Amino acid sequence: MSRVRSKDTAPEMVVRRLVHAMGYRFRLHGGKLPGKPDLVFPGRRKVIFVHGCFWHRHDDPSCKLSRTPKSNLDYWRPKFERNRERDAVNLERLTELGWEALVIWECQTRDREALTRLIHNFLGTNARTASSPGPWRTRQPASATP
To answer: How far apart are CA 130 and CA 146, in angstroms?
Structure first.
């Protein structure tokens, strides 16, 4: 269990790279928000959680990653139930604080096109793109006079 990472997991890195490539800018691991969301968009008051299907019990029947271990069920069932209860409480607290949350499951990171649409629909269209550079690029360089 000590090797199970809570930050910078492979699915989280996929989402972070994709969101950044889409032009959105974010903060990481909002420690002051309930549940410590993986990506925080303060100006939009939106957060994204990237959940591992195994640990957070993805309930999609087609998800093979959320299998239940066959041994030591007395340990695993309560652990998984506590994780799900904690996730629900954290989402509820975020909503009460005026934040919108999106949960992206590990298995969803495999289909990049669908993931891009999901993120774009959640965050909206105000991302910075290559065709619209930020204000730091609008100035012309000063001409050098001899």
So the answer is: 34
Structure pTM? 0.80
* Burial class of residue 9 in the structure, from the number of CB atoms within 10 Å of its CB (0-12 exposed, 13-18 middle, 19+ buried): middle
Q: Measured between alpha carbons, how far is residue 78 from residues 46, 84, 103, 128 in Å?
A: 30, 10, 22, 44
Distance CA 66, CA 84 (A): 13
- If one compares 96 and 130, the residue with the highest pLDDT of the two is 96
Phi, psi of 107 (to 5 degrees): -70, -20
For the chain, give the mean pLDDT.
85
From the list 123, 94, 121, the residue with the least C-alpha distance to 20 is: 123
Q: Are 39 and 29 in contact (CB under 8 A)?
A: no
**What residues pair up with 47 in beta bridges, in sequence order?**
40, 101
pLDDT band, residue 69 (cuts 50/70/90): confident
How far apart, in whole angstroms, are the C-alpha atoms of residue 25 and residue 42? 10
Integer-rounded Cα radius of gyration of the chain: 19
